[in-house]
Design goal:
This protein is of the alpha/beta class. The protein has one domain (5-101): 3-Layer(aba) Sandwich (Rossmann fold). Helix content is 38%, strand content 15%. It contains 6 helices and 5 strands. The strands form 2 sheets. It has a 3-stranded parallel beta sheet with strand order 3-4-5. Strands 1-2 form a two-stranded parallel sheet. β4 (79-82), α6 (89-94) and β5 (98-101) form a beta-alpha-beta unit.
Length: 105
């Protein structure tokens, strides 16, 4: 977990003034040890609630099965950045969100 791209990204965003909330269904305990400043949440819905943007950096099945209309309704903003090219861009945009795919897929 140390040096994971998600932790590096969170630290860089926070350094630029962003308020980062994070959720990982598997590695939250390790993330707490390696990134004390992270605002780690216990559920995905706790991260997307009121978010300006979402950045996906892992392709856990839980994230791939999200109801993007529910996600859009709970967000303040509308940007989804898919750092793994794991999501269905059509489903994300059909929910009224802006999709940006980067990375491997």
């Amino acid at each position: 977990m140390r040096g994971a791209s998600s932790l590096v990204l969170a630290a860089r965003l926070e350094a630029e003034g962003a308020h980062v909330r994070a959720y990982d269904p598997v590695a939250t305990g390790e993330a707490r040890k390696n990134h004390a400043g992270a605002r780690l949440r216990r559920a995905c819905r706790d991260v997307v609630e009121g978010a300006d943007a979402i950045v996906l950096v892992t392709e856990w099945p839980e994230f791939l099965a999200l109801d993007w209309r529910d996600v859009a309704a709970s967000m303040k903003g509308d940007v989804v950045i898919d750092g793994r090219n794991a999501l269905d861009p059509a489903a994300v945009t059909a929910a009224g969100l802006q999709y940006e795919g980067i990375g491997i897929g």
